[in-house]
Specification:
Rossmann fold; globular; five-stranded parallel beta sheet; Arc Repressor Mutant, subunit A; alpha/beta; six-stranded mixed beta sheet; 18 helices
């Protein structure tokens, strides 16, 4: 049975005419830069974000560009529970792949968090020093990290995959205009399957499928949420506060639960790539993490589904918040190594900057406005505190012009 499942998951082995249909993703070039080192490569992202497609893009590159034999590539999707038997004992796994030291073999383990102890398995495989390049993916950062912990420190390099960026969305749908792309992302988000669907009603159904799969598989089956009603209500409250300050005390009162449960649910939502907290900017980092964060969604389609809010952009009151949220996801989707620090800035008299973005040779105060405006007064204020900071005003025109 295992051999039959494996052959179905690896069609390029027995079908010389097999053609990959995956569309390109920006992250591929960064992963290829890490192809020849000895690190294991971990790809984390929400369900349906395209992790499997990225693994297939890597496999296609190996077959077509690097002329690697199909017999030296092993892909395992662990959503199929029958395959777990193969990972129960390392010797059995090594026998299955028929490892050899004279040429490199490539191992792809999709949805690694499905294993009982993926960290220990990968560590033992890595420590054998075999000529193997190992890739793994996971849709729950919390679950996968809890199962890998210290095992993979120094052995792996992690990358986070987000829904399609603006440019990727254009590549997925070349005929449509940049204005249509921007408006579709603000309303329906940018999960790859949703992006490829052109019918608005079908887009909504796909988003519903993604949400239900997330709640049923990640939340109910694997993370064992004990109060699913409070969890769903929390999601709705956060969706309503998108881009606003997140007050845990207020949320706890509204849901009639304690603060610790709110924090646990927030951590779960963040680790499963549904939301992202952005903290206020301070030079003193310890002070920063004790302050109230803002909350954003990593896909606006999911956010709008939670609120059943799919109205056109030109009739929405929340378009400014949606555009601000969209810009954050744009920054995140290009930060493959996770090296950028993203915060917001707010003074005691309520002067605010949407994002303070710090990276290599980058220290920028960024204001995000849907409509073109004059230079924000807040730029002059922040320059008094940080004279060396650069300023940037982002409007929809930055995405509409070619």
């Amino acid at each position: 049975m295992i051999k039959e499942i494996f052959e179905l998951q690896n069609p390029w082995r027995n079908r010389p005419d097999f053609r990959f249909i995956q569309k390109p993703r920006k992250i591929l070039s960064v992963l290829l830069e890490n192809l020849d080192n000895n690190k294991m490569i971990g790809i984390l992202g929400s369900r349906q974000v395209g992790k499997s497609s990225v693994l297939f893009l890597l496999i296609r590159h190996l077959l077509e560009k690097n002329a690697v034999s199909a017999n030296d590539i092993f892909y395992f999707n662990l959503d199929d529970l029958k395959l777990h038997e193969l990972f129960a004992e390392l010797p059995e796994f090594l026998y299955f792949i028929g490892h050899t030291r004279d040429r490199r073999r490539y191992i792809f383990i999709d949805e690694a968090q499905r294993l009982t102890n993926p960290g220990l398995f990968l560590k033992e495989l890595y420590d054998l020093g075999l000529n193997l390049k190992k890739f793994y993916s996971g849709s729950s950062q919390l679950e996968l990290k809890s199962k890998t912990k210290e095992h993979l420190v120094g052995r792996t390099r992690l990358f986070e995959l987000y829904p399609l960026s603006f440019k990727e969305y254009i590549q997925f749908n070349a005929p449509i205009t940049r204005k249509q792309v921007l408006e579709e992302i603000l309303i329906y988000g940018s999960y790859p399957e949703v992006a490829l669907e052109r019918n608005p009603a079908a887009k909504k159904l796909l988003i519903k499928d993604i949400y239900q799969a997330y709640v049923e598989k990640e939340i109910n089956d694997f993370l064992k949420i004990e109060n699913i009603s409070a969890f769903n209500h929390l999601l709705k409250l956060l969706a309503m506060q998108c881009g606003s300050m997140m007050n845990r005390e207020s949320l706890a009162r509204s849901l009639r639960v304690n603060h610790s449960l709110i924090e646990r649910y927030i951590q779960i939502l963040e680790s499963t790539f549904i939301i992202r907290r952005v903290y206020p900017f301070y030079k003193n980092y310890k002070k920063e993490i004790t302050k109230t964060p803002k909350v954003y969604f990593l896909d606006l389609g999911l956010r709008n589904f939670i609120l059943n809010a799919f109205q056109p952009v030109d009739s929405r009151m929340d378009v400014g918040a949606l555009f601000e949220n969209f810009y954050l996801t744009e920054v995140l989707s290009s930060d493959f190594y996770g090296l950028k620090m993203i915060n917001f800035w707010r003074t005691t008299n309520q002067t605010e900057i949407d994002f303070i973005i710090q990276g290599e040779d980058e220290f920028v105060a960024t204001e995000v406005k849907w409509q073109a405006q004059s230079v924000p007064r807040s730029f002059k204020t922040i320059k008094k505190y940080y004279p060396d900071i650069a300023t940037r005003l982002i409007t929809q025109n930055d995405f509409l012009k070619t």
